Records
---
Amino acid sequence: MSTIAEPQFPTIGSHPQGTDSASPFEEMMSRFDLAAQKLGLDPGLYKVLREPVRETKVSIPVAMDDGRIEVFIGYRVLHNIARGPGKGGIRFDKNVSLDEVRALAAWMTWKCAVVNIPFGGAKGGVICDPQSLSRAELERITRRYTAELMDQFGPEKDVPAPDMGTNPQTMAWVMDTYSMHARHTVTSVVTGKPLSLGGSRGRVEATGRGLMLIAREAAPLRGLTLKGSRIVVQGFGNVGSIAARMCHEQGAKIVAVSDIHGGIQNANGIDIPALIAHYEKGKSLKGFPGTQPVSNEALLELDCDILIPAANENQIRQKNAGNIKAKIIVEGANGPTTQRADEVLNGKNVLVVPDILANAGGVTVSYFEWVQDRAGFFWRESEVNERLEDIMVQSFRDVAQMAEKYGVSFRIAAYMLGISRVAHDTMVRGLYA
Ligand code: NAD
């Protein structure tokens, strides 16, 4: 095997027309193919990197509060471990599918490589609606899911974290279940834990903080400054609400936000700290004083400078990309933009800062948490935030340089950077046979 060889493999790439599909894995592969072609990736390495290491489906029987037995389906995909243990969140959502988890696992591989941290990629999910489950039911699902994957998880093997529908409490249950089986407390098996159980300062805010830093770095490339920019945020969970708060604190004007039930807007800017307090009380954006309702579809097309999609996949597609007015899109969600939409946006000179760079703040501080747990020595919040800023800013510059050198979009540049690092390390390790 040799890496970064002559560009000699037109057979690679089954998506020459671009994709606008409902399959996150196809969307991921279409970008992987484009980046592999640009890099002139060796066909053998291409085959190695496109295949996940392992895919597991688990059945999760749970006694519900009313005495019924329900069986939930869960997945864990370990995509690549060339550069370190698998790393990636656990999603609880009714739309979880193996295709989605497979894509999310691959994105984790490229993301960890883009920010140059020593992890591979993995992801997990359980098909369930967390809103309709009690705390006790969620705990039983989490514990059984963890027990089923006991042999696969581990600080040196595969380290989960929160994602949509899961939170620090879920991670505490994962840690406790794993530790009960291991017969000793193993905090470093999972990240995103509560602070008192080996969590890291700054982890809850990390993805949102990273998005703010990336928005700040990207703004001058379209003649803007973060201060004074008008920003729209889709999704008001961990990522979206904190990105909104961090950008608000830097003097940006958040003109609209939404959750799964719809959005609210105010062209003069929304008081985000007050909105967060309102949302925490009622779990609803509706009726926040001084705002008007807006649908999730219309929200994406509002007049603004920066759009931060922070909900789920495939929100920006060929059909609505042409109507987007933002000059910059900073992807908080994983996979919010299809490849066909990318083509439309590139044609309009919209700067799309891709997920695998823009939302990497979360996994970066997860890496810090894993380091702190293993060392048994915990950092001040200012140290965490400083190190995060160094990594996000350096990674933004690395991707910008790659985009400039090869004349490609930021997305393809980020894939090229991630893939070339994983390809290089795979080649240096060699194949064990
Ligand atoms: P979350 O569960 O805390 O919040 C999700 C938010 O999106 C909620 O406000 C929900 O109402 C909203 N939402 C869901 N479907 C929607 C839809 N169709 N339209 C509009 N809003 C919708 O999840 P999160 O942790 O904030 O994750 C959001 C996204 O960010 C996901 O794509 C996730 O993979 C990605 N991400 C999360 C992290 C992290 O550290 N949590 C890190 C990197 C990337």
---
Amino acid sequence: MPHILAPSLLSADFANLQRDVELIEGSEAAWHHLDVMDGVFVPNISFGLPVIKAIRKHAKKPFDVHLMIVNPDQFIGAFRDAGADILTVHLEACTHLHRSIQAIKAAGMKAGVAINPHTTVRSLEDVLADIDVVCMMSVNPGFGGQQFIARTYAKIADLVELRTRTGSKALIEIDGGVSAANAAQLVATGADVLVAGNSVFGAEDPRAAIRSLSAF
Ligand code: DX5
Ligand code: ZN
């Protein structure tokens, strides 16, 4: 299966969000990646439900919504109504992670679980068969444009092994510091989805950046 590219709108021009959403729509990228931050789980605030709802009207491709918020359970239905197709919660933010996964699926979305750089992939063992996406953070969440953490390669290899052992079909998504310098090696190691913010919207030519991160 060819890998999926999910540009992160966190690095888009927030004064021109419609333009940047349409840029993704007209590109080789398959998903939109939307980073929701609450200033509590992560030391930054981004955007939330009304913004997602507003840009949904200009997009047909799936919305991959990455919740970096505490107590995500209380907003599952609201994010579905705003237009999320894949809803990802952080393992570190969920006391009853399995219940959160069930609630996301019951609301009609695909369920993702994100893990911070310090969280071992082994902690996913008992939920891996129940989820659709693992969002493996390759930076500490909260900001775009950070440096990729090289330990991620070993974690991808561990997750590929765990996925086989548990019979899971979850996609492995890598989020943070992805660029032309590491994209091919990430996919060769086992990544199915690459999130890219700064390397797309910080580029001189975002369309060309999407093309080069998609076509290999
Ligand atoms: C980080 C977010 C990422 C971020 C990636 O907290 O989850 O999705 O936008 O940005 P880059 O690709 O710039 O590291
Ligand atoms: Zn993200």
---
Amino acid sequence: MPNTNNEKKRVAVLGSTGSIGTQTLEVISKHPDQFEVEVLTANNQIGKLVQQCRTFLPNTVVIGNKDKYHQLQEALKDLPIKVYAGDQAIAQVVEMGTVDIVLTAMVGFAGLLPTINAIKAGKVIALANKETLVVAGDIITELAAKNRIPILPVDSEHSAIFQCLAGEFHNPIEKIYLTASGGPFRGKNTAFLSNVTPEQALNHPNWEMGNKITIDSASMMNKGLEVIEARWLFGLKPEQIDVIVHPQSIVHSIVQFTDGSMKAQMGLPDMRLPIQYALTYPDRFTSDFPRFNFMDYPNLSFEKPDRQTFRNLSIAYDAMHTGGNMPCIMNAANEVAVEGFLHNSIGFLQMSDIIEKTMAKVSFVQKPSIDDYFKTDTEARRIAQGLIGM
Ligand code: MG
């Protein structure tokens, strides 16, 4: 349904050169009468960022890496685009009066401060940065409720749940099932996993994604992070969230209501759909994305996740049960461990060892403040790096 008040939604895309950022701009480009790109931010990929600026002519652009500021400024000097650099600028630019909706597609803990600032400034959040809710879901959801800010999920599983809940928000949820593809190593044992390379882990069967989330998918940490993300997004108890492996990635997740009825959301694995739904919510816009054909998928299958081999899923449940700053510790250790694995400093299975050891070492805080979360993140990274020898 077209926007009836004739006003375009002005979007800030944080992490615009990554996989989600790029697909967000693709969605926006198909609805130029509905959306306007107001802000673009990226960390490093200056060539791609310049190209995006030339296509979408944002009001403001920020490059995270300050060393690239002059290069960016030089490349855009013929255009009326404001150019800034650094993490502080990324955290501030979301507060601009001309921004309506902030899509957070940057990777990791870096998403926390910009998201907090955007909520405080009254912006609608399209949340693609799951780590923000994993780290500080208590503070974020409380802040969003206080400021009456909707947090619209972009993650495909959470978008699925959110879509199933349309018209049902007053009905209690009995439980949800988050589906998991199982990644490239589904069915493998620890002997196999002890020798896998980053290249093998980066080869996901169903989804095209950035490096960090692809490794998380191979290790099942992505599903662990998503379980915690779902807890906060939908106000659930840990025992109400289950994970089911579904190798075809067609059923994106399932809600079970208290009468026993289950609703699932289905479609081809295509991130542009959840991105578009978050941007157009509560409406659905027509799209030309490829349609699902049952004859291409005569067998949709489901199986139990292997929590012994893929320990990260159990680790994430433990962190969620413990609460406090434990998910923040786990997230920081995981970010460091993924870096370590990508740089061949540690093996695939050692990632879980590093995370568990870090969780045992960092000081536990039961009711953390924002400041505590920042301190926890720093301490956990230091300890995890020490364990790896980075
Ligand atoms: Mg997901």
